[in-house]
Amino acid sequence: MTHEGNFVLKLYVTGKTPRSERAIENLRRICVHELDERYEMVVIDILEHPESAEEEKILATPTLIKALPPPLRRIIGDLTDKEKVLLGLDLYRSPDKDRSRSH
Questions:
Q1: Distance (Å, rounded) from C-alpha 39 to C-alpha 49?
Q2: What CATH architecture applies to the domain 7-102?
Q3: Gene3D superfamilies from the entry (predicted)?
Q4: How far apart are the first and last CA of the chain?
Q5: CB 44 within 8 A of CB 11
Q6: How far, in Å, CA of 13 to CA of 64, rounded?
């Protein structure tokens, strides 16, 4: 189902709390604006699937795991800080890197 170059993102949440809902909405927004249709997003509620959380060693929620493409990355929090999320997904270049290329 996934194609080469696609992102596989797993978001672990705990129930339908405001923080969980905010993380889901923030991730959806980022995916739509930054990844077009090159992503598969899976939301896993650890209350319903505690074994999944145990397998992935989830210690806090919300936790986003970028499973593909490598390297595997984890981002903890409600994903409000878009720049931090983009850095974690390897989609954002820091301004310092951009400046060094232009000189």
A1: 22
A2: 3-Layer(aba) Sandwich (3.40)
A3: Glutaredoxin
A4: 42
A5: yes
A6: 9
Q: Give every CB contact of residue 19 below 8 A, 6+ residues apart in sequence.
A: 62, 78
Instruction: Quote the CA–CA distance of 71 and 49 in Å, as a whole number.
Output: 25
Domain ranges in the chain are 7-102
pLDDT tens series, the chain, 103 aa: 444 579 999 999 999 999 999 999 999 999 999 998 899 999 999 999 999 999 999 999 999 999 999 999 999 999 999 999 999 888 775 554 444 344 4
SS3 sequence of the chain: CCCCCCEEEEEEECCCCHHHHHHHHHHHHHHHHHCCCCEEEEEEECCCCHHHHHHCCCCCCCEEEEEECCCCEEEECCCCCHHHHHHHCCCCCCHHHHHHHHC
pTM: 0.83
